[in-house]
Design brief:
This protein is mainly beta. The chain is 14% helix and 38% strand.
Amino acid sequence: MKKKRIIVIAALAALIALVGGTVAYYNDSVSFANVFTTASDNIEYTETFESPRNWKSCDTTPKTLVITNKSDTPVAARFKMEEYWKVNGSTSAGKTSDLSLTYQNQRVAIINFQNQNDWEQKGDWWVYKGTLNKDQSTSSLLASVTYNCNINFVDDVTYSTDGKTGTTNTNTYDNATYHLDITAQTVPAAQKEAAWGY
């Protein structure tokens, strides 16, 4: 009887070990497919400008720039302008100016502004004060550029030895080209301060 009891107990222990071992190896798994689709990042830059081929004193040429947000993310917008003059046949590199932006203490090319209340100047950049939501546009800060007609572009007159005839000596802006390069940027409005520092 005692032997039977030991065999039963041993059988029960083996069964418990077998069940415990089976439970220990029981496993389950599940997987989830997570797909993230990014928002549209589409910004439209619209410029009104036609390069004049014979820009004369007092001529005004329209020049506008409008930035439109076509994306789903609200954005902040800014742009900067770089001006320089090049003389015909110039060998100076890149945006290095061959001529001064001023002559006789006046600007040679005058940038005419509009909608200045919508923009704020931060260093070299003009920052749009509002946030552009989908399909919203900035106003244009720029309106046009005028070749200053208040400057006397004739430096002096050289007379012949008899004093009867004279030759005008004109300034070095003749046959030169004025360049106004625009760099525009947008960032998500929530990242404006981190990206631009303001």
